[in-house]
Amino acid sequence: MSMREKIPVWKKVNLSIEEAAAYSNIREAKIRELAKLPDCNFVLMKGTVTLIKRKKFEEYLAELEVL
């Protein structure tokens, strides 16, 4: 088991799209769509890899209003 697998998702600073989807119950495609928005502040690009800043993502989700 690698070090990456041993750290619980809720303790990670950055999440992969897959981890963010599992953590939030939001589809990967929707998270990718949100990550492309110009005002998105929870995305970190590492080369071609998209990472989600967990705390900023949680704040974003807390501010959402569902219609």
Q: What would your notes on this structure say?
A:
There is one protein chain. With 67 residues, this protein is an alpha+beta fold. It contains 4 helices and 3 strands. A 3-stranded antiparallel beta sheet has the order 1-3-2. The protein is globular. The model has no long low-confidence stretch (mean pLDDT 90).
Question: What's a concise summary of this model?
Answer:
By secondary structure, the chain is an alpha+beta fold. It is 45% helix and 18% strand. The protein has four helices and three strands; from the N terminus they run αβααββα.
Which strand-content bin applies to the residues? 15-25%
Uncertain stretches of 5 or more adjacent residues: none
Helix content: 40-55%
Rg, Cα atoms, Å: 12 Å
State mean pLDDT (0 to 100 scale).
90
Task: Label the overall shape.
Answer: globular
Order of helices and strands: HEHHEEH
How are the SSEs placed, and which strands pair?
Layout: H1 3-6, E1 14-16, H2 17-24, H3 28-35, E2 43-46, E3 49-53, H4 54-63
Antiparallel strand pairs: 1-3, 2-3
Key attributes of the depicted protein:
single chain, 67 residues, three-stranded antiparallel β-sheet, 18% strand
